[in-house]
Amino acid sequence: MSMSRLRTSVLVASLMLAGTYTLPLQAAPVATAAKATQAQKQLAKLAAAFHTARCKFDPLLFATANGDTRYDDQIGLAISPKMRAAQFTLYRSLQKQLMAVNRDQLGAQDQLTYDLLTYELNNAMQMESFPDYLLPLNQMDNVPSTLANYAGGTGSQPLDTVKQYQAYLNRLNQLPAWIDQAIANMREGMRNGVVHPKAITSAMLPQLQNLRASSPQASVFYSPVTRFPASFSDADKKKLSAAYLQTVDSKLAPALNRLVSFLEHEYLPAGRSSSGWGALPNGAAWYAAHIKDSTNLPLPAEQIHALGLKEVARIQQQMALLAPKLGYDGPANKLPQWVSAQSAYNIFTTDEQVLDAYRAIYAQVQAKLPAYFSLVPKAKLELHLEPELTRATASDHYTPSAADGSHPGVFWPVVNDPKQYSRVDMVSLFLHEGVPGHHLHAALLKEIDLPDFRKFSTENPNSAAYTEGWALYSETLGKEMGLYEDPVAYFGHLNAEMLRAARLVVDTGMHAKGWTREQAISYLSEVLGWDEARSRNQIERYMVLPAQALSYKIGSLKILELRARAQQALGDKFSYQKFHEVVIGDGTLPMPILEQRVDRWIASAK
To answer: By CB atoms within 10 Å of each CB, which of 32, 58, 292, 393 scores lowest?
Structure first.
């Protein structure tokens, strides 16, 4: 390869990383069919190698959570420094090989794959110098609790066959080694000043303590044995029962005891009193890297903070206009607190009533959908309550359908007490987590002919600006669809949008401006009308997932900006269906690449 070609490839990679790379409006002409085929084969091979590498490195995140069941018998050891170093070495090799592929000899879709692979590799490499592995678990994301949630067989890891039971058992056998590596990492973190705040360790301790059981048979990890499908033979039941009992009793129980004891007696006392990432070694640069990873844009924290304050003020104005329709005539800034106190909005007495209400919203959305979307997935959406183990700390969420159709997409409402479950947020929440939000995007992604690294992208951290931005944008469509004519539902939307705006303020406040945990909790309670416990749950989430909460609003505002640009440019030629085809029709895209594709569509539609 010539030095000229190498410099060009490096420039493309650098611009992609900076978020300024501009896609050509038309694919470059292909020199010959033979060259095109060779370039296509090289690209396909690299794309497949990248996906396989990620799945083997972190199967829970990059495979199972995305509905890819091929690695359901592995948990990986991504937190191992040795494994991590090998992964980055592999990524550098893939980058070098990708630079040898002549992008100009690819068709338009392959060029998009080339650009996305370049982007993914660069994004992964930018995190190499930051020791995330020294913080291997928290109350929002830890492997033991993830595997405990999978024990029910209703989530991302199904338990319907003997093979699936064996796959889950294999993961349980690997968990003790993961726990010991996590303890070793945290001890290194204690030596280097990279530790969680005391409040975070206190928040995750009860969750991990609850994973221990009075007997092996009472363990959540043994519970699949109590729910064998009727089709299993007596021999299979006997063999699996004995194997699960052996693993839970002799391997898992001691490992969980080691973990809890370490956290209680060593890690908690060593915890820090500060709240944000900025207090960690090289914390400002580390947080800036997380911002770039989550938003796809090199935005300064100060700029995001100011944007958040501006959005909060705008939404508060909208709430003030809505207040009289709700029957409220008090101070405008106290409306959220007043709504939270209205018991009339707590209309449920059972969990099933909550699910029935969501099913009714689903039916309303389905009736409105064809006017706005021509691309819809075949996979259906199901609704299941969040498992009891994680209800105290979980947020309502969605898990994608499997690519092989073995399980559907699922929306998981968190219902701790149905009598306290308010109907206020339900429409907006369903539009975000269900349809047309996460489910429409994630399920459709599995049905489009794409390379695996693009198909299985919904749970990737650096896809959050698109995935969460799309879901928040989907909430705004409730107004066009006529789903917010009820003032209570519209307030729910505004309050949900307020949360995403307030996140810009508190996330940057804690991680870049030195806010305390208590200061952030107070701000969230004030603008959202939440009680202290609910605000604390959210703030502690942002404390351990720096910048992830920024992705929602940043991504949504970008999609709304692109739609406004298209509406202004196209006038009567604008079509919601066509616009949404452009936005979701090529799968998950970083914001800079999405913008170029929308601009290309506008130019062609004119």
So the answer is: 32
Contact (CB, 8 A) for 385 and 363:
no
Give Cα separations from 570 to 223, 557, 564, 573, 591 (angstroms): 58, 20, 10, 5, 21
Alpha helices in 434-531 (DSSP H): 438-447, 452-455, 464-480, 487-512, 517-528
pLDDT at residue 401, rounded to an integer:
83
Note whether 441 and 349 are same-domain residues.
yes
119 and 143 housed in the same domain: no
Q: Are residues 471 and 542 in the same domain?
A: yes
Q: Please, are residues 23 and 596 in contact by the beta-carbon 8 Å criterion?
A: yes
Q: What is the rounded distance in angstroms from the CA atom of residue 207 to the CA atom of residue 176?
A: 17
Q: What CA–CA distances, in Å, run from 183 to 41, 258, 262?
A: 43, 9, 7
Spatial separation of the C-alpha atoms in residues 182 and 208, rounded to whole Å: 13
Which structure tokens are listed for 24? Answer: 């050509």
Give the end of a domain, one of 559, 576, 592.
559
Block mean pLDDT (10 aa), the chain, length 606: 33 36 41 76 97 95 87 96 97 97 94 96 93 96 94 88 98 98 98 98 96 96 97 98 98 98 98 97 97 93 98 96 96 90 95 96 97 93 85 81 82 94 96 96 91 85 90 97 97 96 98 97 92 94 96 97 98 97 95 95 94
C-alpha–C-alpha distance, residues 300 and 508, integer Å? 10
Domain end marker among 235, 251, 273:
273
Q: CB count, 10 Å around CB of 25?
A: 10
pLDDT at 392: 75
In this prediction the pTM is 0.86
User: What gap in Å lies between CA 539 and CA 517, rounded to an integer?
Assistant: 7
Report phi then psi at 197, rounded to 5.
-60, 150
577 within 8 A of 372, measured Cβ to Cβ: yes
Residue 444 and residue 449: Cα distance in Å, rounded?
Answer: 10
Q: Which residues pair with 197 in a beta bridge?
A: 272
* Biggest alpha carbon–alpha carbon distance for the chain: 73
Structural domain that includes position 193? 137-273
Q: How many CB atoms lie within 10 A of CB 264?
A: 14
Domain co-membership, 217 together with 243 = yes
Task: Report the DSSP pairing between strands 409-412 and 397-399.
Answer: antiparallel
Radius of gyration of the chain (CA): 24
Q: Where are the beta strands (DSSP E) in 290-443?
A: 381-383, 397-399, 409-412
Residue 20 has a pLDDT of: 38
**For residue 409, what are the β-bridge partners?**
381
What is the C-alpha to C-alpha distance for residues 537 and 380, in angstroms, rounded to an integer?
31
CA distances from 11 to 7, 8, 334 (A): 6, 5, 52
C-alpha to C-alpha distances, 560 to 131, 141, 298, 331, 601, nearest whole angstrom = 35, 31, 19, 31, 16
Amino acid identity, position 100: A
The strands making up 381-383's β-sheet, listed across from edge to edge, are 381-383, 409-412, 397-399
| Separation CA 93–CA 554 (nearest Å) | 32
Cβ–Cβ under 8 Å, residues 591 and 465 = yes
